[in-house]
Amino acid sequence: MKNWLEISQSFFDTLGYSPRDQQSLLGQSIIDTIESNGHLIAEAPTGVGKSLSALIPLLTKMTEDSEYRALIITPTKNLQKQYIEDIESLKTKISYSSLMGKENYICHAQFRSNKSKIDDYVFERISKMIPKLKEGSRAEIEENLNMRLSDNEWKLMSGQSQRCSDSSCAPENCFGTKAVRVARESQLVITNSAMFRVDVDMRLDDPEEGYLGKRDCIICDEAHLLEQDYISGSSTDLSEWEINDNINRINKGIQSAANVFSMSPTVTTTTEEYLVDFQSLLYKIKDFYLERESGSRGECVIKENFIPTNSPIDLQNKMLDYEEHLFILDDIIPALQTIDRNLDDGLQAAIDSHAKGVAKTIRKGKTSVHTMKSLAHTLKKAFSSKNGTFVDFDVPKNVVFRFYPSTKDRSIKSVFSIVPLDISSQLAPIWQDRATVLMSATLRDIATDDFSYVKTSLGYPEYSQELVLQSVFDLSQQQVFYLTDASETKVDLPGAQFSYEELRSLLEASKGRSLVLFTAMKELEYVRDKLIIDPLPYPMYFQTNGENKDYLTQKFKDEEDSILFASRSYFQGVNFPGPTLSQVILCKFPLLGYNDLTMNQERWWKGRGFPKWYNSQSMFSFQQAVGRGIRSSSDKVIVSILDQRITSPHSRVCQMTKKAIEYMGSGAMTDKNYVEMFLRA
Could you tell me the domains of the chain? Predict the structure, then answer.
């Protein structure tokens, strides 16, 4: 086997520093895994240097073997960016790329169609920029503009996977399509969990044709997030509003498609009938919503081993009746693909003959068909079985049916949701026959102190190598917990558990330099409103819906005495080393939302030998949140937990907090005077 220190020396000489002992252990284990085509699961605390531990063996292997292909999965775009920066710093000669969803790339059609809604200055600058863009990503555009685009502005010009149609612009000019093509040809691809899920879905249909091409090695960073990210992405929500929207858009385009049938001789009367059948199917789905029992809220049906949580309508029986209308999907999808191809031929012919009016008609028809294809795939995923994970009417398994009210545009709309409880059967084949590595700072279940849960939930091989590394930092000296004494009054906000007065005094003691984390946006907004009236003498940044996270993070880093107020999205994936951060404040312990879904997830895993599933998931989130500040041996951080439930010895929060702190090897105190002295020092 190759020696880590030998192969890494030239890379570290380039960077100008030496590897840490724990980094060497992890790097050697990854080398051995790659060479043996094995499987590794590694818990590597913050500061070990996981990215270089993974990159150096991969770059070495791919330099020696130009046919070797690897994939690195991260949960966030920030981590994707970090990996790309690390690769560039190592001055490698291999081919590599970063791949995100189409919503991260500018779309020619969206951009043009929303011209009236985009600022004139911005529109003109981007128009001139588009032919020169390399990637067409949001980051590249903002860099060239030298300004930040809000999320709402970006939506007006970015690709939208549900509505995306290559008929609106030539596929060769589509930045999202180009990114996929470049990724498939690259030796190393850095992608996120969402794109990985799409790739897995494709491989389940055709093992040889994944979205990302053949890969000899898969490395998943921050692997503790993969399960929930995958489940979230695999869930299917169909609202009454969405069904109506799709029906309206398809009806508008269906006549355009019919008008060009004569230009496509192979599009027969049979395929026209498929379009009618598809419309009929959509109306039956709409009827399904209308037939539900009125006035019911929070309904839930669990198939097989579980019972409804509260007097729901009999969705299961309705679904069985409803299933008979769905058989046409198997015929509709290939029929739509045939129509799409023929319309594409007609469009090209019209363009070649400069028949602009005809081309426009064909384009509308093709867009309509593309919409139908997209929705048809959604329906098939929702109402058909794939490896036993989703709905199987003959062999019901691990799926939650939820029928609940959702607010959209200030009105109540019914949402039918299908959520898998377990994705292990989908992922298990992906780990086979290739080298794989799962790594994170938090992979062991605190309740069992082993990797059994993550292996089971992700379908990871039981025989995989396990590695647990110690922290490179002395957390007993660098990280101290302050637990509220609950002596001050809670904020006047339903569900809130912290004291605004105590929060303010801690921020004053640290002279800013704090990250304040909330589990609910309403609590963040409450504090923001109070501080607007009576501000602190430090720069304050508040996360809001639509705020550019990268921009907000950088502003906080640039001003050493500033305060950042943020939500759960800042619990992981962001680092604040050095003097930027002296204090992390958790206003509430990050319990999972206890609803019908999480309750049944807990029951599902309890039946499989993991009775503390809910507690474990919450403590994973807690561990990640408190780790934002310790990034070097010189960092010292106070973690203040203001959740007043800590003072109740028999409460779930109190027990979990103390167990997690003990597990992490840090000290805790309840004397705020000492904390304030520490912070002022």
Answer: 4-100+183-232+424-468 (3.40.50.300), 104-175 (no CATH), 236-420 (no CATH), 475-680 (3.40.50.300)
